[in-house]
């Protein structure tokens, strides 16, 4: 198809341009900005994980262990999951209060 045979079926009118600009609201622009920032963060994390895989794995295991220990402590259990016989110790705070 030669360029000389290209024809436009419709001409863009001012109303069509204005309706397209209605999509560019604060919410749409904020969402687009958040998506770009999230993509940048994911790409940065991917580069970091590729460059330092052992450190990322260590950080992930440490993070999971801390979350697990905090969950057990909040349930009143011992932080050590292999300590089957003992419950969490209750600290006597009467000496601290007086």
Brief summary of the model shown:
By secondary structure, this protein is an all-alpha fold. Helix content is 61%, strand content 0%.
Structural classification? mainly alpha
Low-confidence stretches: none
What is the ordering of alpha helices and beta strands? HHHH
Globular, elongated, flat, extended or rod-shaped: what is the shape?
Answer: elongated
Describe this structure in words.
The chain is mainly α and about 100 residues long. It folds into 2 domains: about 15-50; about 55-98, no CATH class. It is about 60% helix and about 0% strand. It is built from 4 helices and no strands. Helix 2 crosses helix 3. The longest helix is centred in the middle third of the chain and has 26 residues, at about 25-50. The model has no long low-confidence stretch (mean pLDDT about 80).
List keywords for this structure.
single chain; 98 residues; mainly alpha; 2 domains; elongated
Lay out the secondary structure:
Elements: H1 14-21, H2 26-51, H3 53-74, H4 94-97
Helix pairs in contact: 2-3
């Amino acid at each position: 198809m030669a360029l000389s045979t290209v024809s436009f079926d419709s001409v863009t009118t001012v109303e069509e341009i204005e309706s397209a600009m209605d999509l560019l609201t604060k919410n749409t622009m904020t969402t687009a900005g958040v998506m770009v920032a999230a993509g940048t963060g994911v790409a940065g994390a991917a580069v970091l994980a590729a460059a330092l895989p052992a450190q990322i794995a260590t950080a992930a295991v440490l993070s999971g262990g801390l979350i697990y220990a905090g969950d057990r402590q909040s349930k009143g259990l011992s932080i050590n999951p292999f300590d089957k016989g003992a419950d969490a110790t209750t600290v006597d705070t009467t000496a601290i209060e007086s």
